[in-house]
Design goal:
213 residues; Hypothetical protein af1432; binds fe (ii) ion
């Protein structure tokens, strides 16, 4: 029998059903990863991340860059991941056309793009937020950001350091790191995604604090 501490950790089961849901949510970009192992690890990372929250799948997450910022006018967080992966693939392709020696590992690039926000379920979870907000002096508020938690998830499921580094370094935490070529591409693909849609009027600013505490 699980102790309370352990059963409290994972709110949902990391089941084959959850894995299958995630596999579907990340198509078709997931299949751009040639390594079967890497592909399975990407799915596992998201399954573990979701299972440790009150969400049931990636698409349950607000389609926004941060939990309290403007969101996509349509689409889901899964669409964001797929969009960033698709942009990253095209950036790498264009650069490789001119510089075939570009040291970009395509599998790492796609896995990193699909996992760059794998820490978001924890950071966005309304149940965790309510708990934290109720006692801000206990563990601090707001909850730590998704890049460090995403790195933790990546390493926990056995993803390579190169992918974990993309999860950690894709946003401003990466400003104090030396980003790899793959991490640099994902960083700008992510920025391009949100900023282009925002400036084009495809984001809506309707976040309302539900009064977690
Ligand atoms: Fe992102």
């Amino acid at each position: 029998m699980k102790s309370n501490a352990v059963s409290d950790l994972a709110q949902n089961e990391v089941s084959d059903k959850l894995r299958a849901t995630i596999r579907k949510e990340l198509q078709p970009e997931l299949d751009e990863i040639r390594s079967d192992t890497l592909r399975d690890q990407v799915v596992e990372a998201w399954a573990v991340a979701i299972a440790h929250t009150s969400f049931t799948c990636i698409s349950d997450l607000r389609a926004s860059g941060m939990w309290n910022t403007d969101r996509l006018i349509r689409g889901t967080q899964a669409d964001h991941l797929r969009g960033v992966a698709a942009i990253a693939i095209q950036i790498a392709h264009a650069l490789k056309q001119q510089f075939p020696e570009l040291p970009v590992d395509r599998d790492i690039l796609v896995a990193g793009a699909l996992c760059h926000d794998v820490g978001k379920p924890y950071e966005y979870d309304p149940v965790k937020q309510a708990r934290r907000k109720a006692q801000p002096s206990k563990a601090g508020w707001p909850i730590f950001r998704h890049p460090p938690y995403g790195m933790h998830v990546c390493l926990t499921v056995g993803l390579p350091d190169e992918v974990a580094q993309i999860a950690l370094g894709h946003s401003y935490e990466g400003e104090v790191l030396a980003r790899s070529p793959e991490c640099t591409i994902v960083h700008y693909a992510d920025k391009s995604y949100w900023q282009t849609l925002r400036i084009s009027g495809l984001m809506v600013d309707d976040y309302k604090d539900q009064g977690a505490a």
